[in-house]
Design a protein that fits this description.
- This protein has about 325 residues and is an alpha/beta fold.
- It is about 40% helix and about 20% strand.
- The chain has two domains: about 1-30, no CATH class; about 30-185 and about 195-300, 3-Layer(aba) Sandwich (Rossmann fold).
- It has an eight-stranded mixed sheet, sandwiched between helices. A two-stranded antiparallel ribbon has the order 1-10.
């Protein structure tokens, strides 16, 4: 996009493009960057039911609000270090795009479940963070969206079954956790479980998804009332398990489900949005626009893009 074209655009157009991170120059994929001065980072220590103090970082648009909320949950089985979580919410495309679009955005970590993949402490920490965030005066509690990738996607689905949210967006959710088939009866290569220890489950889902696990999964999914958008590529084998187990179960239960597939995209391409984990950042940008449209349909309080003077448009790393 040339400088002349930018000058010809009106303020509303600039705001919309800045919020979506869609401005491009020299064929580069761009993203919004919002300074800590404009939108400070707040550190939260949500209190779980068992008394554990968790960790979340939140950024809020300027103004009184209330604003819609997006909670972002990372993947894996283990806690993220504080510095990594802070760096993610400050500089990664996904939280930056949501903030510029007018959402309160929070990045949450949780206690590890790599000794027992079925341990509920990770879910308890995420629920504590969500409940804390929904009580903030800047947040509309009826406009809370939960997004998570892989293990975070599993937690997003579990949260929808446990509390009130207006929508969830699991990216390639690790439904081997949700269904219970990934548990301590499986052998592990080291002292603690890693995602690789569940590889056999993904190769033959029907073999491991026994009637007992099916009964428990259906009971777990039954309370979900909110719309669900599953985002996925077609590379990682977790999509095989989801296609044979999770997606059919959600549809059979009559849940409001949409599935968007982006060809050739690797695991968590959308969560990272740039760098080696996202070889085609333009597809991650498209996925954001698709997801933003989904969120806008379901939040009660509609987001309003930040003033363009507060948003710097920068190239996405690896674009």
């Amino acid at each position: 996009m040339t400088g002349y074209e930018l000058r010809q655009m009106n303020r509303r157009q600039l705001l919309a493009l800045a919020a979506a991170g869609a401005l491009k120059a020299a064929d580069e994929v761009m993203r919004p960057a919002v300074s800590e001065t404009a939108c400070p980072i707040e550190r939260l220590s949500p209190l779980a039911q068992d008394g554990h103090r968790g960790l979340a970082f939140v950024r809020t648009p300027p103004g009184k609000g209330p604003f819609p909320l997006v909670v972002i949950i990372h993947g894996g089985l283990v806690t993220w270090p504080e510095a990594q979580l802070r760096q993610y919410i400050l500089n990664s495309p996904l939280p930056s795009r949501f903030l510029a679009a007018g959402y309160v955005v929070a990045a949450v970590t949780y206690r590890s479940r790599d000794l027992d993949p079925q341990d509920k402490v990770s879910l308890e920490d995420c629920l504590a963070a969500l409940n804390h965030l929904k009580q903030l005066p800047s947040v509309d509690p009826k406009s809370a969206v939960v997004y998570g990738c892989s293990g975070g996607g599993d937690l997003a689905v579990e949260m929808a079954a446990a509390t009130d949210v207006c929508a969830i967006i699991p990216e390639e959710p690790a439904s081997v956790l949700l269904t219970g088939v990934y548990n301590t009866s499986l052998p592990k290569k080291g002292e603690r479980y890693t995602p690789g220890d569940g590889a056999a489950l993904l190769e033959n889902p029907k073999r491991y998804y026994t009637p007992d696990f099916q009964k428990k999964t259906r009971a777990k999914l039954a309370p979900i009332q909110c719309p669900i958008l599953i985002i996925q590529g077609d590379v990682h084998p977790i999509n095989h398990f989801n296609a044979e187990v999770l997606i059919p179960e959600l549809r059979a239960a009559g849940k409001k489900l949409e599935v968007l597939t982006y060809s050739r995209e690797p695991h968590c391409f959308y969560f990272y949005g740039e760098g080696t984990r996202t070889p085609r950042p333009a597809i991650a940008l498209k996925a954001f626009n698709d997801m933003a449209a989904f969120c806008r349909r379901h939040v009660r309080v509609k987001p309003k893009a930040l003033d363009v003077k507060l948003v710097k448009i920068v190239p996405v790393a690896g674009a």
